[in-house]
UniProtKB/TrEMBL annotation:
GO terms for molecular function: heme binding; iron ion binding; monooxygenase activity; oxidoreductase activity, acting on paired donors, with incorporation or reduction of molecular oxygen. InterPro entries: Cyt_P450 (IPR001128), Cyt_P450_CS (IPR017972), Cyt_P450_E_grp-I (IPR002401), Cyt_P450_sf (IPR036396). Its cofactor is heme. The keyword Heme applies. It comes from the Eukaryota. Belongs to the cytochrome P450 family. This is Cytochrome P450.
Length: 402
């Protein structure tokens, strides 16, 4: 990075390990291995003497709770992360602290609490699912993953079509942001970019790994298909292309399978915060002022102490009680949607989208991964993607009634 005109320091993004920049997935896997071997599941490092960074990576739930909730005020995104991500995210909700974050959080929370948003998501997904099912068979799977874009896509399209002048409409999502007074073109651009990232890259990452994991376990796929049939039968619904909000809520096994896929392959695999003042984490690890403190959801999924000896297995049943009802976990043990005051605002929306698409697709089709043996490569970026896409052989289910 070149020195910046506004006086913020320019940081060597990855001065420490250029090798890891080219092979970021190794950093993810290496840190998961180290965290698993540390007695308290926290590794701290200090390269400050070399003009680089100091920090800690943790997989300890008590530390996660401390960082994201109990001592929230002491852990901001910080100057380092903001400066690294600024070209991409500007000062949108993901890349801001203090008042700049707070006004966006308030504006967005208001929208996310509205019933109309839930209805909108259900309708949009229904419309997209209909289109998906009308396509030629060989294009269906590709389109399935592209179908998740929903809400964020609409924001971008409407902004482009109507321009800044049209944003004053009362029912418009962006107008709420504009109404707060921070409505320069730049800040609205940042709102859009951040929500596209939030809504699209996360759910598509999650579904990609989910479809891959399920394709390796036909028994899981059959159980999902059986559940979908049972829900259809009990609701008596005739809408062949979609499921209502209530029908989706009945799909506990599918909910568990998606949750389990995200446990092993969290769309946001690691999340970093900057320590404002010297602190000691609950497990006794010292973290200094200015250190980057990171929790790794990817590492946590691989800790036997948290998930048992079968922690590396894809086992949706671990999320169900004896009656087959989904049983959530603490967000600090399963920080896939973050926790505390900055917890994900779109969690419910994400589940509606992902369950709708998965249910529509598995009601009719069965999938086999044809991308070779072993696990596909990880592309570790802001979200965790799959190297080389997801080549699948699609077969119509023999028991499909559609
Ligand atoms: C599987 C899907 C998703 C996952 C795993 C996920 C995960 C996360 C995580 C880990 C964070 C914290 C990020 C950070 O602060 O560094 C976050 C924040 C956020 N998410 Fe999601 N998310 C998902 C889907 C969505 C969707 C669909 C939306 C809505 C468009 C959304 C909106 C947001 C927003 C607005 C924040 C910022 C909260 C704040 O900083 O106050 N997310 N999400």
């Amino acid at each position: 990075k070149q020195p910046r005109a506004d006086g913020l320091k320019a940081y060597p993004i990855v001065g420490i390990l250029p090798h890891f920049v080219r092979n970021q997935h190794r950093l993810l896997e290496w840190s998961a291995g180290v965290v698993a071997r540390c007695p308290t599941h926290t590794m701290s490092f200090n390269f400050k003497g070399f003009g680089l960074i100091a920090g800690a990576i943790t997989g300890n739930p008590a530390n996660v709770e401390h960082i994201v909730k109990t001592n929230f005020q002491n852990y901001s995104k910080g100057e380092y992360v903001v400066s690294v991500m600024e070209d991409f995210l500007g000062h949108g909700i993901f890349n801001s602290d203090g008042d700049q974050w707070l006004w966006q959080r308030k504006a967005a929370s208001y929208e996310f609490n509205k019933r109309s948003l839930r209805n909108f998501v259900v309708d949009t997904v229904r419309w997209r699912a209909k289109r998906l099912l009308d396509l030629e068979p060989e294009r269906r799977m590709r389109e399935a993953l592209a179908t998740i874009h929903g809400y964020a896509d609409r924001i971008v399209r409407e902004r482009r079509e109507r321009g800044a002048a049209g944003l004053a409409r009362k029912d418009d999502f962006l107008s709420r942001f504009a109404a707060t007074g921070e409505h320069s073109d730049e800040s609205l651009r940042d709102v859009v970019t951040n929500f596209v990232l939030a809504g699209r890259d996360t759910t598509s990452s999650a579904l990609t790994w989910f479809f891959w994991l399920v394709s390796g376990q036909p028994d899981v796929e059959d159980r999902i298909a059986r559940e979908i049939r049972a829900v259809r039968a009990s609701s008596g619904s005739t809408d062949a292309a979609a499921f209502s909000f209530d029908e989706l809520r009945e799909m506990h096994y599918l909910h568990a399978a998606i949750t389990e896929a995200m446990r092993l392959y969290p769309p946001v695999a690691m999340d970093s915060h900057c320590c404002q003042n010297d602190d000691v984490l609950p497990d006794g690890t010292f973290v200094g002022k200015g250190w980057q403190v990171t929790y790794s959801a990817y590492a946590m999924a691989r800790l036997e102490e948290l998930w048992g000896a079968d922690c590396e297995e894809f086992r949706p049943e671990r999320w169900l009680d004896e009656d087959g009802v989904f049983r959530p976990e603490s967000p600090f043990k399963y920080p896939v949607f973050h926790g505390g005051p900055r917890m994900c605002l779109g969690k419910e929306m994400a589940y509606i989208q992902m369950k709708s698409i998965a249910a529509c697709v598995f009601e009719r089709f069965s999938f086999r991964f044809v991308g070779g043996e072993g696990r596909p490569g990880l592309v570790f970026s802001v979200t965790l993607r799959m190297e080389g896409g997801l080549p699948m052989r699609v077969k119509k289910r023999r028991d499909s009634v559609c």
